């Protein structure tokens, strides 16, 4: 089953939500946690630039935007990007500008501060390099097979500012740890040199960030911080 087929099942066929968590209270808690860890040299500059990779239609994006932050999301599946865009209200004609790019589209909110990419996360986008204060990753790393993770982490290291942070949620599993997605992920997996370890340091283990109502799977959180360029391992 492809990601497009999975999203079609979720959005149009009434299928299981799988990994989706739409509880706004959980999204508010995630943003509060992020704000507690961000280093801002000027406290008057309260708006953060936040990247949400492989975001699907995660309501965190619209919520962070509603709180005055500048949000950018990337997802491969157009239907998921369409569903996210609808969360902002209004209409495509009046509220969004669509820019076509190779193998995808970029939707820019006419009110500013929201850019939604429909395309490949692994594609290098020079306009995103060294742009983001924060990366919000809910389960993206843990959804990727081992052979793709290195490219994913490389892109995030390019796009994150020096001292910027990654708020990342992963699954801890009691059984079938090598099967996925989602895959079982621990701190050591995140911090392998070929993953985040060469460009980030681990600064906090958040523990269980919310309950999945399961005795065999737990939603865990971590905070990573981008080391200054030139100081990489």
What does this structure look like?
Helix content is 30%, strand content 30%. The protein has 233 residues and is α/β, with parallel strands linked by helices. It starts with a helix and ends in a 7-residue tail after the last strand. α1 runs parallel beside α4.
Q: What labels would you give this structure?
A:
alpha/beta; globular; single chain; 30% helix
- Average residue pLDDT: 89
Distance between the termini: 38 Å
- Strand residue content: 25-35%
Number of strands: 9
Task: Enumerate the strands of the largest sheet in spatial order, edge to edge or round the barrel.
Answer: 3-4-5-2-1-6-7-9-8
| Count of helical stretches | 9
**Major beta sheet summary:** 9 strands, mixed
Overall geometric form: globular
What is the helix fraction of residues, given as a range? 25-40%
* N-to-C SSE string, H for helix and E for strand: HHEHEHHEEEEHHEHHEE
Given helix and strand content, the structural type is alpha/beta
Unreliable stretches covering 5 or more consecutive residues:
none
Gyration radius, to the nearest Å? 17 Å
């Amino acid at each position: 089953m492809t990601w497009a087929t999975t999203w079609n099942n979720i959005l149009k066929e009434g299928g299981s939500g799988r990994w989706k968590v739409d509880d706004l209270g959980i999204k508010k808690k995630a943003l509060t946690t992020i704000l507690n860890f961000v280093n801002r040299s000027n406290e008057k500059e309260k708006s953060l630039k936040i990247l949400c990779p492989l975001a699907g239609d995660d309501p965190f994006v619209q919520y962070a935007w509603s709180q005055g932050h500048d949000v950018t999301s990337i997802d491969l599946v157009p239907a998921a990007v369409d569903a996210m865009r609808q969360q902002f209200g209004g209409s495509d004609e009046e509220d969004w500008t669509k820019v076509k790019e190779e193998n995808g589209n970029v939707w820019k909110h006419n009110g500013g501060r929201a850019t939604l990419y429909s395309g490949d996360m692994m594609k290098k986008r020079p306009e995103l390099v060294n742009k983001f204060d924060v990366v919000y990753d809910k389960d993206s790393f843990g959804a990727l097979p081992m052979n793709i993770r290195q490219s994913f982490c490389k892109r995030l290291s390019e796009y994150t500012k020096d001292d910027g942070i990654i708020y990342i949620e992963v699954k801890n599993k009691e059984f079938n740890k090598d099967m996925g997605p989602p895959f079982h992920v621990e701190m050591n997996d995140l911090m392998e040199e070929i993953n985040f370890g060469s460009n980030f340091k681990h600064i906090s283990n958040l523990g269980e960030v919310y309950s999945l109502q399961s005795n065999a799977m737990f939603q865990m959180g971590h905070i990573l911080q981008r080391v200054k360029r030139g100081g990489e391992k």
